[in-house]
Structure formats: C-alpha cells, structure tokens
Design brief:
alpha+beta, five-stranded antiparallel beta sheet, two-stranded antiparallel ribbon
Length: 121
C-alpha cells in the first residue's frame, strides 16, 4: 500500500480521534514485529511525508506489511511488588473498520479479537 493510502487512513483516524494504545506492526524488510501505539504516529514526528519513527528507526509507510490492532489488551498493574488486578482496555476496531470501508480500497481481516490491516498480501 502506498504512503498516500496509509497517510489518508492515519489522518482520518486522527481527525475522528480513533486512537489505539496497543498494536503490532510488521515491515516488509524484517521478520520482527514491533509494538506501537497510534499516539506514537500522532506525535510531532507524524506528517504527510509518509515517514515516521517510533523507536525502531525511521520508516516509510509503504514499507508496512501489516498492522494488527487487538480489540482489547491487558494493562498489568503493580503497587511496588504487589500485583494488582489488570485493567482491560477496549480499542475501537469496529469503528476503525467502518472508517476503512468509507475510505475504500483497504485490505483487512476483522474478528472479535483483532483488526489486521494489510499493506501487502
């Protein structure tokens, strides 16, 4: 998928405030899967050049093979050494899917546990 299509999606998600706090991203050039959040893409480093950097080094959006956004994730909590009940964070994957349908031309899989957006299949 081109830089322009990723930017169109990210820009629309930003405009609609459909942020997610936990996701995984895989690039074409590596077998590594990196955790990230939309807040990282929504930082000052995010612009319409199609480049971003969130710790793994700069990349072009067109290098994204896929992004996987879980419907919910567990936030572990501790008080010093004591483990507290985890907090379950729900993410707006159904709303993100609806945005992609409005914008058109996005390949994705959606089930109750995950939205996976493909740059390349």
């Amino acid at each position: 998928m081109s830089n322009a299509k990723w930017f169109k999606l990210f820009d629309y998600l930003k405009k609609e405030k459909l942020f997610f706090s936990s996701a995984k991203i895989k690039f074409l050039i590596s077998d590594d899967v990196i955790r990230f959040s939309f807040e990282q893409l929504d930082s000052e480093k995010f612009d319409n050049t199609g480049f971003a950097d969130f710790g793994g080094g700069p990349f072009k959006f067109l290098e994204i093979e896929w992004i996987s956004i879980p419907g919910k994730y567990e936030l572990e909590r501790k008080n010093r050494q004591e483990k507290l009940d985890s907090k379950i964070i729900l993410q707006p994957i159904n709303k993100i899917q609806k945005v992609m349908d409005i914008l058109g031309q996005f390949e994705y899989d959606l089930d109750e546990s995950e939205l996976k957006i493909y740059g390349y299949i």
